[in-house]
Backbone:
């Protein structure tokens, strides 16, 4: 059985499936009090809505009960800064941010701490961030991009003139106030500019926005910030940058598959059985196991050559290949990176660990989804097939890949339909029956000879699914 029943808890030993043993030392975060009091000044602040959250902190809207002034307050639990280097990181952020005074930098007000949390009071930007605007609209006009970009550059120039690197420029850190004025914010990774010889070689920041010299451990400089600024400025205004030149999108894969299957079905004669199948079909990769952990991380799958990949909720993709010795990483803009597993950059270690946990779960709990009987696997590729999108319907799971392949797994009887491309770009259709027996046919043979009602019924259903997602 190739699918996971429901959402499995990857970290739990059976009989306690709801415990996350990988994080067993982490205590539940206490609920933040409705009213927070500064122990030194005695001023009270009432908690408002949650504005955002990250790995170490949450940001709330808070109101000073005496003056009614509103703030964006970054709340860091004391438990997250218990180690000296963690405490030093927060202290450096506060000391650096409090020195900044510029119309395009989020204003620092004050900070204090109590036994539970550290509170950093910042200017409230009521329009949230450009990430929120982008999510709602999916694009900005060229005049809007120019308007915001001028303000970002003004703020960034100010930082660089003061010898400060931001190191995490992205849409989510460009905040907009009620007057539609932009502010640079979140200085958690900011650092003082150093000479070329002294530059930090640490890889930090948000993966999609990292400059090549940062990934190559050549150090951070002002040019790294400029690279990171270039990514969102293109991202918010140009579709080609997110799709990638010559890159198949999920809609394009669905559209192409829908067309060839519709054409096949339209000319297919009525038949009571399937035609003779290929005795030795050209080997191809397909999904033999999968697990849905999208409520927390993403969708994991194992290919027939034992490669394991995860399409993460934020759109990045990481695969473990070549018997786990090689890591392929793909950003949302379709930029690919290949690393040796033992020299993977630190920011990707957590995602690799998640892939390994899903792989372990699939290995221990799931059967192979069928046996295609290939005498050998396809030759290894410099860029393995990557999952572009997965869709769960009432009756089936649909998976679309960047090599144009489509796989549909039916829940009720565990049958599977796989549409793949041969080396000559012709289509091959593979059907895995409820008995887990596979048969492969060139699509033109089915078009000319017909097939059983069992397979025809499934092909019609697949076309209906693809029709919906091709036009989505």
Residues:
């Amino acid at each position: 059985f190739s699918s996971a029943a429901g959402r499995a808890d990857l970290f739990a030993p059976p009989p306690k499936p709801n415990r996350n043993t990988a994080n067993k030392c982490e205590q539940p975060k206490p609920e933040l009090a409705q009213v927070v009091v500064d122990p030194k000044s005695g001023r009270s602040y009432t908690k408002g809505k949650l504005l955002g959250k990250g790995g170490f902190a949450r940001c709330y809207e808070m109101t000073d009960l005496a003056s009614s002034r509103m703030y964006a307050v970054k709340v860091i639990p004391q438990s997250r800064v218990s180690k000296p280097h963690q405490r030093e990181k927060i202290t450096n952020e506060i000391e650096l941010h409090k020195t900044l005074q510029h119309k395009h930098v989020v204003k620092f007000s004050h900070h204090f701490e109590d036994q539970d949390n550290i509170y950093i009071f910042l200017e409230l930007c009521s329009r949230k961030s450009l990430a929120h605007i982008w999510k709602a609209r999916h694009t900005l006009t060229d005049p809007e991009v120019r308007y915001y970009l001028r303000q970002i550059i003004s703020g960034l120039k100010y930082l660089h003139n003061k010898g400060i690197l931001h190191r995490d420029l992205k849409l989510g850190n460009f905040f907009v106030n009620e007057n539609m004025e932009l502010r640079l914010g979140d200085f958690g990774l900011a650092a003082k500019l150093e000479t070329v010889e002294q530059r930090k070689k640490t890889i930090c920041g948000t993966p999609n926005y990292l400059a090549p010299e940062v990934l190559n451990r050549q150090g951070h400089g002002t040019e790294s910030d400029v690279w990171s600024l270039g990514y969102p400025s293109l991202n918010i205004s140009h579709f080609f940058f997110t799709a990638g030149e010559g890159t198949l999108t999920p809609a394009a894969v669905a559209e192409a598959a829908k067309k060839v299957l519709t054409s096949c079905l339209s000319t297919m004669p009525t038949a009571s059985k399937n035609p003779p199948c290929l005795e030795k079909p050209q080997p191809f990769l397909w999904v033999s196991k999968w697990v849905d952990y999208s409520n927390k991380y993403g969708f994991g799958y194992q290919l027939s050559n034992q490669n394991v990949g995860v399409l993460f909720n934020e759109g990045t993709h990481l695969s473990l290949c070549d018997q786990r010795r090689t890591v392929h990483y793909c950003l949302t803009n379709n930029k690919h990176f290949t690393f040796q597993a033992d020299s993977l950059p630190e920011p990707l270690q957590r995602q690799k660990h998640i892939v390994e946990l899903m792989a372990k779960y699939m290995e221990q709990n799931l059967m192979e989804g069928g046996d295609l009987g290939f005498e050998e696997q396809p030759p290894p590729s410099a860029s393995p097939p990557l999952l572009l999108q997965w869709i769960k319907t009432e009756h089936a799971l649909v998976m679309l890949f960047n090599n144009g392949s489509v796989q549909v797994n039916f829940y009720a009887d565990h049958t599977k339909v796989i549409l793949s491309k041969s080396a000559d770009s012709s289509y091959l259709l593979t059907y895995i029956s409820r008995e887990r027996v596979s048969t492969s046919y060139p699509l033109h043979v089915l078009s000319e000879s017909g097939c059983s009602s069992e397979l025809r019924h499934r092909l019609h259903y697949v076309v209906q699914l693809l029709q919906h997602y091709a036009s989505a």
Observations:
- Confidence is low (pLDDT under 50) at residues 1-28, 196-218, 236-246.
- Residues 130-237 form a domain with the Transferase(Phosphotransferase); domain 1 fold (CATH 1.10.510.10).
- The radius of gyration is 26 Å.
- The longest helix spans residues 142-161.
